[in-house]
Amino acid sequence: MSEGGLPGMGLKLGPEVLRVSDGVWYSATGADGRTLGVLRFDPARVKASGGVPRLVERTVAARGGLLPGTLPVLDLIEDAGLIWLITPMVPESADAARTTALLLGTAPVSAPGGVANGHGTQEPAKKDLKDGLPSRIIRTFIGLVLVGAVLGAAAFAAVKLKDKKPTTPVQISSISVHNFAPVQPSGICDTSVDMVAELTTNGGTGVVDYEWDIPAKNHTTQTVAGAETVSGKSPKVHLAWQLKLSGSGTVTATFRITNPAVLAAGADAASAGDLKYQCP
pTM above 0.85? Predict the structure, then answer.
């Protein structure tokens, strides 16, 4: 690694902040000025835990919400034989240790389940890896190998990246929130619905930080936060919304972008989608 930065990532590496049994954590500054967390894995621990392919597989699972307990993952890269994990924050000791243990461990991956409460509550958002696949590719082996992940077949294909073309930063001009599949008011009384925020962009690539606000019990609101790399003209961000309803009325899910740098001039940062219900 070149002194002070990670190649191709636009990151300025900061001081060491934490040592764990599986590597060393640093703070870093992103191209947009945000403070990030960077873990340099111990190569011996990666090798002992099944090598890079297994680490890539479990990192993809973590990004898809299938390995609960890890920190959010922005990227995984290799440089000069070292493996680096990029996260959107500098972790506390317990979070750091748990994340490295899960990524290098043997615990099986499984889809997280929502917990129903009142007008609907939600544990960590479930992301559908089959939709918008390019936005869920872990960029590994920058300048050497691009690893693609397809959840349904658990297939990982490595191909040589011949041309490293500069990417256009994403700019989002509008947001539309709706349920992914049509539902009837009587069909959402006790079920999970797939809400989606569909973004209209310039076709660029970038990380979108966001929050979903959904109704919770006792007329309160629950916030589900996340971060996702998006690309293409119409990328989507999903929310698995667990509902338990009675009576009739309307529930609303609001999607909000929390890093304004990805918004085009004059674009609204938030949009909402309604669901009507008619239940016993």
Answer: no
Q: Which of 80, 110, 140 is the last residue of a domain?
A: 110
Instruction: Choose one of 91, 110, 129: the last residue of a domain.
Output: 110
Domain count, the chain: 2
Domain of 89, in residue numbers: 5-110
Report the distance separating Cα 235 and Cα 188, nearest Å: 26
Based on its alpha-carbon atoms, the radius of gyration of the chain, rounded to whole angstroms, reads: 20
pLDDT along the chain (280 residues), means of 10: 48 82 85 82 86 84 78 78 83 85 77 39 38 33 28 32 64 94 86 91 93 88 89 90 90 95 95 93
Contact 228, 131 (CB under 8 A): no
3-class secondary structure, 56: helix
Cα(244)–Cα(154) distance, rounded to whole angstroms?
A: 32
